[in-house]
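Troubleshooting log. The previous structure file for this entry was overwritten by mistake, so regenerating from the original sequence record. Sequence copied from the archived sheet and checked twice against the printout by T.R.
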Amino acid sequence: MELLTEQAKRKFIGRREFMKGSMALGLTATSALLLFQACGGSDPTAVPPTSAPAAAASGGDAAPAATTAPAATTAPTSAPAADVDAENLDHLVRRLPELNEMPFKVAEMWPSLEGKSTIYCANLLVHPFHVSSSANFKREAERLDMSYTVVDAAFDPAKEVENVELGISRGMDAILYASVDPAAAIMAIKRQRGSGKIFFNWDNPSFARPNIFWLLPHYRIGYMAGEWMSEQLPPGSKVFTGVGDLVTQAGNARTSGFLDAIRDTGADFEVLASESGHGWSQEGGYAMGRSVFSRFPDLQGIWAGDDQGALGVQKAAEDAGRREDVLIVGAGGLKEGQSAIEDGRLDMSNMFRRGHGPEAAMAFLFVEAMLRGNVHGDALQGLHSIRGVNVTKENIADQWVSPV
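Regenerated output below.
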């Protein structure tokens, strides 16, 4: 609980996340709401959630792997008492003692995690997203006196299976996993979960329904990019979609979202799509951009799937003398992408509210709670969708600034 209150104070989590976490730890809905208010939250009269949040994707016929949220398994379904209104709630909140005066200490109630171990099986460790995630996982593990190991699949499915097996063979208490191809590692995943250990799929869901996964709303990212481009370009425009890959859920969902948005908005575009992808890198984006600009000299817009690929496309556009007459859109919001929006190299990027760093730290709280509570690997399932916002040069000043 002390961890949740600290996150609320630092504005890393909102009311819904705080309420769900507190209720899962045994607080009543009313008590959880009071405590959130004491931490400086807002919306005191809102009814707390009784299930996981609705899917982040909207529009289109289907949002791959993001259409439904798993139901909360431990939170009670009771709502705040009818007599708790804004007036007497504020009165009660003012009477709550400071956290350091509470008659209990979480550290005394929960077992120490000293000696526990975790491994992060990254799918592409050189990518800034995973550099940021790994740095935060390491920091959180050190805070808890846990050992931390990071391994890199370098986008190789065979290496990914080997990395997961390494975590299992070493008896790691928690495996943090960013998948290349979850189908390839499914048997290893099932063994880890079947042993009662924690398996945490970070960024993408696996086919084995890991006990906790942290799902970036990939479909929604693409959909918002498609909506924005539909508003910027006239009918008859020719646009191109090229994400990092079409193997992972991230690439497929982002592409599907973009195409569905073009269809749903009624934009009369000619849409061309990459058959492979750029590898989530600037080098790959540059190669893709050179090919696209040579083949389609009348192109008006490119959705590059993420900021790294978009920056490569931008360089190719400059070299081809096309930067002034084509829109280039990315996604992500890491430091380099934010700088590119600010100085005009990219026209728009769908960025994650609060940024990657705080989200990774919040994700680790779930792992910590499960380890402290000795929760079996099948006992809890959660979903958190990071809110995305379309960011242009006009509103970049309002965006969180990434340190990576």
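Residues 2-108 form one domain. Archived copy saved in two places this time.
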